[in-house]
Fold these 2 entries.
Entry 1:
Amino acid sequence: MTPTTPAPSGASRGATVWREVTRHGLFWPVLALVVLLLACGVASPGFLDVTVRDGHLFGQLVDLLRNSATPLLLALGMCLVIATGGIDLSVGAVMAIGLAVSLTYLDNAADPSNVGTVVTAVLLGLAVGALGGAFNGAMVAGLGIQPFIATMILMVAGRGIAMLITQGQITTVTSAPFKTIGSGFVLGVPTPVVIAVAAFVVVSLAVRRTALGMFLESIGINREASRLAGVRSRRTTWTVYVIAGVLAALAGLVYGAPTMAADANNIGLMKELDAIMVVVLGGTKLDGGRFYLGGLLVGAMLLSTLERAVIIFQLPSQTTPLFKAIVLIAVCVAASPTLRAMLRGRRRADRSNTPAAPVETTSAAEVTA
Amino acid sequence: MKGINRARTGLAGVVATFTVLALAACGGSSDTSGGSDGGDGGDSGSDLIRVGFSQLGAESGWRTANTESVKESLSQDAGFDLTFVDAQQKQENQIKALRDFVAQDVDVIAFSPVIETGWDEVLQEIKDSGIPVVLVDRTVDTTVDDPYVTWIGADFKQEGTTAGEWVKENAPDAKIFELQGTLGSGAQVDREEGFGEVVGDQIIGKASGNFTRAEGKTAVEAALQAYPDMTMIFTHNDDMGLGAIEAIEAAGKVPGVDIQIVSVDGVRDGLQALVDKKFNYVVECNPVFGDQLADLIKKVYDGEDVPKETIVIDEAFDQTITQADVDARAY
């Protein structure tokens, strides 16, 4: 028997449970989120209150949920792409293109407030997102170009395309139904939250209730082996980029709808990095393979809470990037399996001077398992 | 050994060839762009003044109005051959555009710097080339001696001061939250300074909304929670103020009454908010100064003496503004 299976008696069982919990990939992000929220509640009484106003939920937590919708939508697509061993740098630019197309269509429509027109505008925006994703997918799956480079093309060119669509202007439109996408409520819950959760559920069902999720992971782990095993890796990879494109365009619509201004330069700027960060915080590794959709919820919430906490703590805006960086570094370091293996190894070595070697090997094996 | 050496020489040759090709390509492309912009035939030495203008981007309605005004005033009919480049709010784009202007050897370079610092190297290059520089709207902070001939634009600090004086007179007890523009931009630094000098002790908090509506809205959402006793918002531009209106309304308060809004810019949407009594005071930052810029560039080209600074005339509006005033505005 190896020493790693402790006798299940009393205190040590508690310790085992504790270790299991802390070893869970999401423990540290969740802990950071809870601590941040509580700290905000202490710094500013009433922060954690959620009230009903005019028949809908209102409060800082509701704002946070609404602000998390955009990064969550982006990260959903990004997570699938990363699972195949790829990356999609173009999501921010695709946000701008999707919004530019929708708003330009509305701007030129006879009656921008007509629901039918708005539905067409939204579908057009999503279709353009799909087109962008199809381009990325064709470059990556069809031509075998490195995903980083292939999607960087659209990341750089995308803003130019959005500028062309808006003719370099900031297109502003007035359309109540379109605005609802970003600032309305469904049964008291902000519409963006409903949209993001719906997208999350659909994607989760699609990848976990069908074989798609397994295909993605197999492609990410070994493309060639999965192809030889009969997975249509090219088509699957291409599909995933299309999904990411559609979700990015949807994120653009949700983000831009409240202000109804297609600002080609600023919409979605640097959001691709936010999306990657959310994916990593959620416990998915950038080298592909295993992916965790549930972690995205925590990651997205943590991101928007971080941004808000700076103002709640009354810190100057100059410190925002630093503040974000410190929390992220702390979370990543705390969650690092290598670090914990090192710590555990040292503690055991300290405790017992008896044969340390076999213990250390098993603990290392257990971590990598 | 010999083999390696030969390989190296070969490689160097290839590199050299590429460099020459790249240089040729650069020259070629700048020539064509100059020609196409010139319209009636490139370097015929016609009496058009060749101006390279690098706009920082199109981040707001103000900037768009400014761009329109510049393009309109620096037309061929007015005697200009304008090469207009949009930097899309990136300094590297702007520096590249400025270097292209030097390569094209334009007569006058005009630009609105996206941020204040980081221009030393490129300004020195322009200076060495002998092309006069006219700074537009924003200023630079540089170690280069005498980096530009003249500057034209609004006095941001004065705008901040004007806003502050209105507050001092009309709302001396207001507790003010300041919505800053993009940190480090001239407009943010100077408006904050000018405003702070007058009513600095009334400011209870500050946060940046990057001059955009969406970020202005999120910043104010948080600020309403963080600073519950706030009664006024001073915003560095109208767009953030418009975002603030949404956040205030969502919180069940009345913008312009429960929380007063003082803004700088005077774009149409902002003035409309003033008519609708959601803004309380707007200091104009007049973007339509293309004609003044054109005069200035002509003088610089002719070598006439020009003042180091030309201040664009700004107005200020309170809620007595009428719908007719707003409809009559050019932008």
Entry 2:
Amino acid sequence: MQNNLFQDQKFRGILYQTLVVGFFALGLYFVINTTAYNLEKRNIATGFGFLNNPAGFDISFSPFLDFKSTDTHLKVYFVGVLNTLLVSFCGCIAATILGFIVGIIRLSSNWLLSRIAYIYVEFTRNTPLLLQIILWYAILIQLPRIKQAPQIWETFYISNRGLFGPKPIFLDGSNIVILSLILGCIISFFIARWAKKRQDTTGQQFPTFTTNLSIIVFLPLFVFFIMGSPITLEYPVLKGFNFKGGAVIRPEFIAMFLALSIYTAAFISETVRSGILSVTKGQREASGALGLKKNWIMRLIIIPQALRVIVPPLTSQYLNLTKNSSLGIAVGYADLVHGFGGISLNQTGQAIECMAITMATYLLISLTISFFMNIYNRSIQFKEK
Amino acid sequence: MKKLLSIFAVLAFAFSANAGTLDDVKNRGFLKCGVTTGLIGFAAPDDAGNWAGFDVDVCRAVAAAIFGDSSKVEFTTTTGKSRFPTLASGEIDMLARNTTWTLSRDVNLGFEFVGVNYYDGQGFMIPSALGVDDATGLDGATVCIQTGTTTELNLADFFRANGIGYEALPIETNDEARENLFAGRCDVYTTDASGLSATRAQADDPDKWVVLPNIISKEPLGPLVRHGDHQWGDVVRWSLNTMIIAEELGVSSSNVDESKGSNIPEVLRLLGVEGGYGEMLELSNDFAYNIIKQVGNYSESFDRNIGPDTPLGIGRNLNALWTDGGILYAPPFR
């Protein structure tokens, strides 16, 4: 009887799987138990109470939240999350644009252009990202010192402490200007929908792009002057050690942004290239025979079909970029790992808690990106009618 | 990943920590000592690639005490951030890395500071061209700072107390901070005054840099070990004390052999001629002789590495013996 049972494939399968899960659970229990025991034995504090203690240190880069040294570690966490999201978001957009351009250039019939794109891809793809980040930072640090910062129209200043420029100051009535901008966008959206519907049914085209551009630009501009220019600019002025006022982009951010987007764009360009090559030659020839213009063929026939191949690997590139932003510590960019996973961890000594929170945050960000990219992926998949 | 590593490290420690650290070190045949990633005068490789410096000498003294051979040390470089996990996990036996003794490190992190080998305080270094002669004149300056240190907290406190603003630029290592300072990314570098002197000594033209007179904190720096292994803590503590006591008694590496015939009882006890003090520590009775012979006493180590005749040019000041107007003081050897 027992012999028979072990010869039963289904029973064996279940048995092995139960054993594997059992061993895994046991291992996990052992690890957690030992860690807790050792932490206890060595008098290392545990728990999440430290989140409400004042941080006691300052953060160099916090464009969204106003941070003081008397704020809590919890706020350090939020500043870090926002900085991580900022550089990841900007990086993803720039990497996508650059990746698409390079991917298309690599397929260009112009020998020189496609070679340049090839060299760029191979060079950036095959050197470590950390070195690229440090290289960009080393270059930016060699920009002129703050006292000798070259200026452009006394408005923009370039120095190794960042790029300084004017900052918009919103006075009374400025919210009406912003409302009109939002209104312009909504109107444009409906015009675009109407124009597409009309083209689908009647075949007539409508100059959507120029119409919408003028609505989005001129409507707020018109309101701006009617309201008596409620938005002014504040210019940076060199006072004492640093520029006061105005807006600034720090070299730490620029180095991270450049390195992340240029590095990831090399991978994206290969994805784009493979996507375009996956569209059969017949599609291109058929659309040419219909008399479509060359860039229309790319935009209307090739890219939509190529996207089906491009988007899934593109998602993983976005995830990579986001996770790679944790290298910010190499140049002192105040991201999540540097601030909360680094300085807070050090000052409180609660490594396991800080790392667990930091990892959970990356997991959450990554899953969110995947979620939206999967929705997008489904919307561009081939729909059988 | 880091979390996983730390868990493994804790596990590894759980298995390895059964025997006492002293026995582990004796069986292994060499001491594992954590030092900085390179701070001239305190811990840095010399021209021949051997580690040398004021903190390194503490490691060498412990090795001399255990093995009678100051070269039996393996040095591990640690950053301000990695030093505590490295020590806690048992990767190193002791840490001699200009580390400030604070309550939370002593209690919350589970370490034991065995003494103070350098009384320091946090200061500021700026280019002399800035023309600032007091730290309260630094309103709005960009300040480079090593992350994971007490200096980070002192800095915030100092500027808050004086009601002036600044921009912090937290950097991982002393080397990176120096690069940023020399390139002008920041106006000011703040760390312990001893570290500033070391950084200044590395500049192309040290005269272009000044260390401001303001000392904004107490930074007692000393070696530390893991909490709980008192026998091991005693060995490291008395290795350090031996160097200080030797200076008090005027015993140095050059006269240690003649001193064995001294008529001062404490010298005889120290050198193991009388009494069995080494055995109490489970060391040989001539452990102090070996330390003094091979590493030297406190003032020898000080003068060789960071004293007035070195590029750092640091005076004894607080670190002079209590009999010379300083606060350096070791319990009696008896």
